[in-house]
């Protein structure tokens, strides 16, 4: 049996944790200072699990490369945001992705995604 890398386990732990909170949150309106960015932010949050889950089946080298491609895509999306708060939330998610290397780090990603969702709920 192939040994799973720490990154694969972190992605798996994140995906497992997120399945319980990935559904849309609340009915309240987002605050006006971020509302203009919520379409992009919601798209990022909605696509995170489908973007990260395939990484668990890759070799550690391929995982790192795929993660960097995904981070590059997020940075491109961040460039289209018009609010400082929106950019900060996406940067927080990027930072969590960069820091997550072990299953114990999955909470970093879960918390960053939760922040993205809650700010646009």
Strand-helix topology:
Blueprint: H1 6-18, H2 32-35, H3 38-52, H4 60-78, H5 84-99, H6 106-119
Helix pairs in contact: 1-6, 3-4, 3-6, 4-5, 5-6
Query: Which structural class should the secondary elements be placed in?
Result: mainly alpha
Largest sheet: none
* Average pLDDT for all residues: 81
Strand content: under 5%
Number of helices: 6
Helix content: 55-70%
Number of domains: 1
What overall form do the CA principal axes indicate? Answer: globular
Order of helices and strands: HHHHHH
Q: Count all strands and give the number.
A: 0
Query: Any idea what the radius of gyration is?
Result: 14 Å
- Poorly predicted regions are 18-27
Instruction: Give the termini distance in whole angstroms.
Output: 42 Å
Protein name: Hemophore-related protein
Signal peptide: 1-28
Keywords: Signal
Task: Record keyword descriptors for this entry.
121 residues, mainly alpha
What does this structure look like?
Helix 3 packs antiparallel against helix 4, helix 3 packs antiparallel against helix 6 and helix 4 (60-78) runs antiparallel to helix 5. The chain is globular. The protein is built from six helices and no strands. The protein starts with 5 loop residues before the first helix and ends with a helix. The model is unreliable at 18-27 (pLDDT under 50). The chain has one domain. It has helices at 6-18, 32-35, 38-52, 60-78, 84-99, 106-119. By secondary structure, the protein is mainly α. It comes from Nocardia aurea. Residues 1-28 form the signal peptide. This is Hemophore-related protein.
């Amino acid at each position: 049996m192939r040994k799973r890398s720490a990154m694969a386990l972190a992605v798996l732990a994140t995906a497992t944790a997120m399945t319980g909170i990935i559904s849309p949150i609340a009915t309240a309106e987002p605050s006006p200072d971020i509302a203009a960015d919520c379409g992009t932010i919601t798209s990022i949050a909605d696509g995170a699990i489908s973007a990260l889950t395939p990484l668990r089946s890759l070799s550690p080298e391929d995982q790192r490369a795929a993660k960097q491609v995904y981070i590059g895509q997020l940075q491109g999306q961040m460039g289209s945001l018009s609010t400082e708060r929106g950019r900060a939330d996406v940067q927080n998610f990027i930072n969590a992705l960069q820091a997550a290397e072990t299953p114990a780090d999955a909470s970093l990603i879960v918390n960053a995604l939760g922040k993205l969702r809650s700010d646009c709920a």
